[in-house]
């Protein structure tokens, strides 16, 4: 018997299943991942969930991205801008001031109370909005504070300017060509509320549009979500939100 020939023939033959083949060859190109691959995938998934939870906690309690959906705050804010809303701005005793750009829940002041919808859908939409990747809630608004509690706000003086507590307001942030307001009004802001207006007055539905409704267009301070401090996106517009005091007038009795 030619042992050498037999060994030579066996050496050229394919190895038996499980002998000398890489694992990928055993399972084929569509092989199931091994346990190490599984742990890697699971670890990545867990990390993604943890990061999402961290961002949601951050947006709920500290800083929330807010997508600008309309032209009401041009030129200060443009459609598609994502502003960073400081939720701690008014948590420790400080009150909204004239000139602040604030995000608030308009339920009960700008929009009526509505029946509850699909809780799961609302939760998903709320999470997307909190991360700045979805449209904000239909009840959330961004406007500039023009009057605070106790202020006497009048439109307009002989020069076409709004007056707060008898002092004309200089508003360099207004949209070019817009009048401070084409709607005349005179109101005294109740304590604990705000009179707010958009910078693009001709395109903004704000406190003026709700004068004849319950609440008179006033936004309760407790409904303020936070102060919009910076533009976070797009990168070309990154930076602090330009603001100017709406008036240097003394307060009419509330917080100035």
Low-confidence stretches: 10-21, 23-28
Strands, total number:
12
Counting H and I runs of at least 4 residues, what is the number of helices? Answer: 4
Euclidean distance between termini CA atoms: 109 Å
**Rg over CA atoms:** 30 Å
Q: Which strand-content bin applies to the residues?
A: 15-25%
Write down the overall geometry. elongated
- What does the average pLDDT come to? 78
Order of helices and strands: HHHEEEHEEEEEEEEE
Strand count, sense and barrel status of the largest sheet are: 8 strands, antiparallel
Structural class computed from helices and strand pairing: alpha+beta
Helix content: 10-25%
3D architecture notes:
Helix content is 21%, strand content 21%. By secondary structure, it is an alpha+beta fold. Strands 1, 2, 3, 4, 9, 10, 11 and 12 form an 8-stranded antiparallel β-sheet that branches. Strands 7-6-5-8 form a 4-stranded antiparallel β-sheet, with no helix packed on it. A hairpin with a 2-residue loop joins β6 and β7.
């Amino acid at each position: 018997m030619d042992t050498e020939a037999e060994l030579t023939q066996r050496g050229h033959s394919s190895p038996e299943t499980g002998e000398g083949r890489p694992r990928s060859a055993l399972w084929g190109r569509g092989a199931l991942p091994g346990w190490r691959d599984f742990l890697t995938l699971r670890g990545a998934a867990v990390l993604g969930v943890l990061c999402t939870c961290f961002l949601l906690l951050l947006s709920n309690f500290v800083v929330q991205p807010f997508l600008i959906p309309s032209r009401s705050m041009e030129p200060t804010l443009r459609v598609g801008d994502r502003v960073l809303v400081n939720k701690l701005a008014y948590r420790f005793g400080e009150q909204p001031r004239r000139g602040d750009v604030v995000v608030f829940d308009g339920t009960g002041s700008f929009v009526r109370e509505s029946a509850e919808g699909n809780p799961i859908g609302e939760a998903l939409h709320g999470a997307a909005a909190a991360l700045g990747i979805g449209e904000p809630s239909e009840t959330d608004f961004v406007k500039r504070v023009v009057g605070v509690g106790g202020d006497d706000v009048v439109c307009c003086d002989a020069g076409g300017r709004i007056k707060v507590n008898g002092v004309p307001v200089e508003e360099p942030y207004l949209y070019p060509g817009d009048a401070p307001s084409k709607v005349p009004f005179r109101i005294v802001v109740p304590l604990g509320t705000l009179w707010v207006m958009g910078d693009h007055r001709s395109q903004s539905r704000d406190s003026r549009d709700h004068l004849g409704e319950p609440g008179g267009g006033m936004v309760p301070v407790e409904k303020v979500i936070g102060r919009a401090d910076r533009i976070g996106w797009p990168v070309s517009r990154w930076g602090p939100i330009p603001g100017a005091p709406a008036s240097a007038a003394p307060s009419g009795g509330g917080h100035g």
